Amino acid sequence: MQTSLPFTIKRIFRRNEPYVFLVLLALCVLIEIRSGQFFSPNNLVDISSALVVPGLFAIGAFLVLLSGGIDVSFPALASLSAYATTKLLLVMDYQGGILIPILIALLIGAVLGAFNGLFISILNLPALIVTLGSSSVFKGVMQGALNSKQLTVIPIGMQEFGKSSLFTATNSISGLTSRMPTSFIAFILVAVAVFFMLRFTMFGRGIYGIGGSEVSAIRAGFRVKRTKFMLYVMVGMIASLAGVIRTCMMQQCHPTNMLGMEMNIIAGVVLGGTLITGGRGTLFGCVLGTLLIVIVENSLILIGVPTSFKSVFTGALIILGTSVSAYQMMRSSHSQREKLLSRREVVNEN
Amino acid sequence: MVESLLKTVDIYKSFAGVQALKGVSFSLKPGEIHCLAGENGSGKSTLIKVISGVYAPTSGHIEFSGRTYNKITPIEAINNGIQVIYQDFSVFPNLSVMENLALNSELADNKRFVNWKRMRKIAEESLSKINFSIDLDLDVGSLTVAEKQMIAISRALMFNTRLIIMDEPTTALTKREVQQLFKIILKLKDQGIAILFVSHKLNEVFEISENFTILRNGEKVAEGETSSLNTDQFSYHMTGREFEAKHFIPAEISKKPIFEAKDISLSGKLEDISFSLFKGEILGITGLLDSGRSELALSMFGMNKIDSGTFELNGKVVKIDSPQAAIENKIGYVPEDRLTEGLFLSQSIADNIIISVIDKFTGKAGILDNEKREKEIKLWVEELSIATPDPNNECQTLSGGNQQRIALAKWLACNLDILILNGPTVGVDIGSKHDIHEILQNLANKGLGVIIISDDLPEILENCSRVLVMKSGKIVSDLDAKTSDEQAILSYMM
């Protein structure tokens, strides 16, 4: 009865994603008009390339938010794991390909994620406090125990992976070229895997369920502790992958380079319609929100906004975006409510 | 004789030395509608949790269709066909109706992957069990309480269910919704499914159940057939106290109204509402949930700005456009949901009582005069017999009945002329309910104009001298409570 096209459209527009998409489009068009450079092939490739690391982080942050938790430790986790991996391989004088570095990083990420998961899921402590704490611990281990310094040389396999590209795009006017990094595939793979996990596995539905109501999830028979623990392990692995990719793309390991990214990443995810209290949000929205932040951070210079003003714009965008989603939320619950009431009146009259 | 489906034998349960259940035995036959009654803290919830496997009993055992369990796990309970519908229905507000219906059985089948087609089939099948229809793609969070309950019931029927335990199922339902629920319960009974109905509402217990068990302080104090029980006995067993239902007769009613509403309209909600309130009377306003009864209350208290019409106080037109204006005009309002609307639960009992009159206790420099404050607090704690060892305790440490008394005290401290109460005893147990009624009747006799808004008809009939019945935003009838009865009021409401 309610599958007609107008109804479907109305339902879609009740969500946050179309608005983020429209803002994104408007921003792109604005930049294009002002600079004529936005839709040039090399700029698009540049943006895709800039999306890889924030995008991976965002997917992790998104999963945690969805489950009703929050993780602010992922930059520290990624830094520690990338640094430890690089250092270990340098000490071993590793000459092989990219596979071993990634596997080592994933392993370290899993262990660090399990550290978060242990406290959050098994001991049931608040996620914000635990990850604030673990963030310090990870940083401390990296700077203290591992005595971190900038590593200007990284193993050859990582160097090559960082330099490798899928294709090269050229700007016909300026002649500038940009490479699409191979690591973009990693981002796509993770995104696709997470999409399928959320949509087609009970584990994924469990994440939504726990975010909606943890008590209900326990009563329904979800293994809530296990699901949450696995989730933090998984998120640790995704963040570590992002850390290694970042190191490869930079061609050097800078231990503090990623620290402080957490707020913008989480803001992007929330901007994309993920509810900060958990249970609601889509991967598509998460990627859109992140893309918006990435574009603002990378392309404002194209319309002549000095980089020093970047954070002002990012901040404004976050406030604007979250208010729109809050307003949307209010209106949608209101209109659904009205609809119900009117339906009930009909029933009452019968 | 039919073999019993469930039997608990001499169940004891203690938590850290506190005895929650003391030797409770009861039994239930297939297809029986059994009411488990008791006030808050009587051990009802603990007993349910023992039966459903959430708690292990300290001693005693449970028998399911003849099999004895000293301790049962939740999974064993489900496999034995026991389903609990909790007060919050255990739904996922963020997921669709379809998922809410299907996830539990998918999990029980140990499914690892989601098959949306199969989920839809399961959902349709479960809804068809109670002939309920609803759009499967709606978010459960947007449904009404009654609809969520139907979802919870349909879901519970997917497990070869033989016993459904419903924990206070009617708390948030309107009269009509309760009737629909009862129809479904009877239908389930026909299918041989037993219902354990947990409630403290008298009329419902009498209407639906065949047998009853009453708990008080963890002990079984009475059991038997409902038909052999009368209201007074029921209240006595529940509370251990005897009550006499006093029909309220106003001591003295003023000649002139103290408050008049003239042609009040609020677009889409209220239409040409006119009535008067006399000093010393208790005026009842009743109607279905969407009849506009709450909107009217909020308008009188300045929370909803009215579109047209006037309010008159002692014959003078007053403008009530904010709660502050209402308080200045000595009108107080005890909201429907005292928990979210009326009290600061994490603040002290004392501060909650004096919050609306806090200005009265300040000296010249705006500094609180503690002595005066303490005196006022002491007065109300005693006057309303609020059960607390220390008024500086947090408000949330009190039971629902006592919280309601604080909500009352807060307003009485304002020295009001008119007090509006919306659902004054919703979720309150019999003993406290009785006390609250007594307080209200005393207040009216002291010359306060009281308005009670409620759909609890026995409450209205017992306490009000006059009843206004609302329907679709209009007052459809003005009845004398003495000569009226529930049937008459209901016929106007529907």
Please characterize this protein's 3D structure.
The complex is a heterodimer of chains A (350) and B (494). Chain A is mostly helical and 350 residues long. Chain A has 14 helices and two strands. Chain A has a single domain (5-349), classed as ABC transporter involved in vitamin B12 uptake, BtuC. Chain A has helices spanning 5-13, 17-35, 41-66, 74-92, 99-122, 127-145, 156-163, 183-200, 202-212, 214-220, 224-250, 262-271, 283-299, 310-349; strands at 165-170, 177-181. A two-stranded antiparallel ribbon of chain A has the order 1-2. Chain A starts with a helix and ends with a helix. Chain B is an alpha/beta fold. Chain B has two domains: 6-239, P-loop containing nucleotide triphosphate hydrolases (Rossmann fold, 3-Layer(aba) Sandwich); 257-493, P-loop containing nucleotide triphosphate hydrolases (Rossmann fold, 3-Layer(aba) Sandwich), CATH 3.40.50.300. In chain B, β1 and β2 form a beta hairpin. In chain B, α3 (97-108) packs parallel to α5 (145-156) and α14 runs parallel beside α15. The chains are: A mainly alpha (350), B alpha/beta (494). The A-B interface holds A 1-2, 199-205, 208-209, 211-213, 215-217, 219-222, 275, 278-280, 333, 336-337, 340-341, 344-345, 348 and B 86, 88, 90-95, 99, 103-104, 106-108, 111-114, 135, 137-139, 141-144, 147, 176, 288, 290.
Keywords, separated by commas or semicolons:
heterodimer, A: 350 residues, mainly alpha, ABC transporter involved in vitamin B12 uptake, BtuC, two-stranded antiparallel sheet, 14 helices, 2 strands, 73% helix, disordered C terminus, B: 494 residues, Rossmann fold, six-stranded mixed sheet, 20 strands
Topology:
The complex is a heterodimer of chains A (350) and B (494).
Chain A: H1 5-13, H2 17-35, H3 41-66, H4 74-92, H5 99-122, H6 127-145, H7 156-163, E1 165-170, E2 177-181, H8 183-200, H9 202-212, H10 214-220, H11 224-250, H12 262-271, H13 283-299, H14 310-349
Antiparallel strand pairs in A: 1-2
Helix pairs in contact in A: 2-13, 3-8, 3-11, 3-12, 3-13, 4-5, 4-6, 4-11, 5-6, 5-11, 7-11, 8-9, 9-10, 9-11, 12-13, 12-14
Chain B: E1 6-15, E2 18-28, E3 33-37, H1 44-51, E4 59-64, E5 67-69, H2 74-79, E6 82-85, H3 97-108, H4 116-129, H5 145-156, E7 163-167, H6 175-190, E8 194-199, H7 202-208, E9 211-216, E10 219-225, H8 231-239, E11 257-266, E12 270-278, E13 282-287, H9 293-300, E14 308-313, E15 316-318, H10 323-328, E16 331-334, H11 338-342, H12 349-354, H13 370-383, H14 400-412, E17 418-422, H15 430-445, E18 449-453, H16 457-463, E19 466-471, E20 474-480, H17 486-493
Parallel strand pairs in B: 3-8, 3-9, 6-7, 7-8, 13-18, 13-19, 16-17, 17-18
Antiparallel strand pairs in B: 1-2, 1-4, 4-5, 9-10, 11-12, 11-14, 14-15, 19-20
